[in-house]
Fold ABC transporter efflux protein.
Amino acid sequence: MSLIEIIRQAVSSLAANKLRSWLTLMGVAVGVFSIIAVMTTIDALDRSVESGLASLGANTFQIQKYPATVFGSGHRRNIYVNRQDITWREAQAFRKTMEQKARTIGFIISSQANQAKSGDRTTNPDVVLTGGDEHFAASNGFDVKIGRNLTPNDIRSAKNTAILGSDLAEALFPASDSPIAKQVRIGGEVYTVSGVFTKKGAAFGQSQDNFMLIPITRYISHVNEKSSLGITVEAWSQKEYARTLDHAIGAMRLARGLGVREENDFEIRTNESLVESFRDIKRSISIGAFIISFMALLTAGVGIMNIMLVSVTERTREIGIRKSIGAPKSSILRQFLYEALLLSLAGGLIGAAAGAGAGNIVAINLQLPPVIPILWVAVSMAVCSAIGVAFGLFPAWKAANLDPVEALRGK
């Protein structure tokens, strides 16, 4: 028999037992679905990293109490929790030391899950309330669309003025209603809107525009004076970046009163550290998803072997007839091997399509660009092929080595 005839015969045999074939290939589909769905979502996140890095401006790094992500045991987490907060006094001392060694030095402090209200409009309790200074916009890659930025006088006087992120402005004020000079209530305090930032978009699945910026001095005196500050430093140029970073570490150690032998009790957040943190998360999730999917595929492989053994038993007379008219062992072997391979690949294709669709639905809901994980689809198809061949080989070998006389008797 030619290759096309063998494949046609394999398809016909599988179609004759539709329910059994579907149940078997769905086992493969589940295993492929899990890895493709996870990797599609992760690849979408990966592609958003570049836009996410815009949260820090060019040649910029941030000093803060906690690292960007925390892995490890509870003991490791406690190390960061037990650190002293970065205080306003320490931030001021840091600025005094670094003011000639950096282009800008900005301060930031924020709290999550706030609800904003203006007139009869109220937002969901997911607004970020941020305290910052006049350097916040430049240091974090924001531009003022309408109105004005914070001024040094706003900071000195701890004014109750606010600049809105574009998402928050759209939620509280219709497009025809300018928010400038309007009042917004948040956390029991009332603020007068002096500006609105240009829309920045989502990063890592989170909106960067659903926030309200107020003077950091106002935040400390009226919202929470015990929160830890973040210090954003912009170097003069990329060439001066490494030197500025070294100076900043020394200045922060001095401001914190650390001895020569004491380790840093603060973290440096750079674009590179954010990428590395994301890569660590991606690596861990990928390994976990691959292990789970591999176990599911092994289980599906056992199902393929089982259905092929049943098929060999049911088609013993057919095999005997083919052998009696001169069919070689290789032809019988290939036929049953192709049936197992077709089952596995069909399940893999269904799982890949469903996984890519599910992953992109998640990505779109997280405001991430849709992607097709071609590499992982190719890897999944290769693994499915290996599973089909490996678990279909024994039933195919058994069919090829049946004694034709015994097979014709139906035994």
Remarks:
- The chain has a mean pLDDT of 84.
- The longest helix spans residues 271-314.
- The chain has two domains: 3-50+276-408, 57-269.
